[in-house]
């Protein structure tokens, strides 16, 4: 996922071999909704829904996908409190809710959501535990690797201990136009239960296989899919 991902976008990409697609990122509470509107105000595309509209919006979008394809639907959510994410987990067509500890837009991080959560690993652990305890779906956490002052491996261990089903790792390596596969290997070696979804610079089957060889259990495709088409099929992995 890069930017915004709705049902129309996901439906274009499923035939390229995806077994799970992600809707979002959505803002799931008042603070992140306000932040999202500030982001829109400076010209960056964002979903623009009040948080109390979100369950109906997500249910409709997820159902559009489920009506056409037998795939799992994940929903990426930014929030300062767990309740909005837990509510989305209870929607019938939602298989996975994903806590967004990844967004680096300053309007979001100033609320304490998104990437800012990586700088407060105890808070992120407590947040994840609450969502896992009350969610009706599986729980994923999307994190960004190599954030200054954040220990990606330690954070992954905490998330694993708190019971999330997936750690969606953006293996970003600052200043380098490729994934940090060494980081993927370190995280994979530290995590015992959660499945690792490797993200960053998946442009073709070769880069996807390299991510899996580094220890990821699956891969996600973001910028290479922005056009709604891929030059390769993940079904060939």
Question: What descriptors fit this protein?
Answer:
alpha/beta
Topology diagram in text:
Blueprint: H1 7-13, E1 20-27, H2 30-41, H3 54-66, E2 72-78, H4 83-89, E3 96-101, H5 106-109, H6 121-134, E4 138-144, H7 152-161, E5 166-170, H8 181-190, E6 195-199, H9 205-213, E7 218-220
Parallel strand pairs: 1-2, 2-3, 3-4, 4-5, 5-6, 6-7
Q: Supply the CATH superfamily name.
A: Aldolase class I
Structural class: alpha/beta
Number of helices: 9
The first-to-last residue Cα distance is 20 Å
Q: What's the multimeric state?
A: single chain
Biggest β-sheet: strands ordered side by side in the sheet: 1-2-3-4-5-6-7
Enumerate the spans where pLDDT stays under 50 for 5 or more consecutive residues.
none
State the share of residues found in helices, binned by percent.
25-40%
Please name the CATH architecture.
Alpha-Beta Barrel
Calculate the mean pLDDT score and round it: 97
Number of strands: 7
**Spatial extent as radius of gyration:** 16 Å
The major pleated sheet works out as: 7 strands, parallel
Q: Work out the count of structural domains.
A: 1
**Approximately what portion of the residues adopt beta-strand conformation?**
15-25%
Question: Which CATH C-level class is it?
Answer: Alpha Beta
The coarse silhouette is globular
Order of helices and strands: HEHHEHEHHEHEHEHE
According to CATH, what is the topology?
TIM Barrel
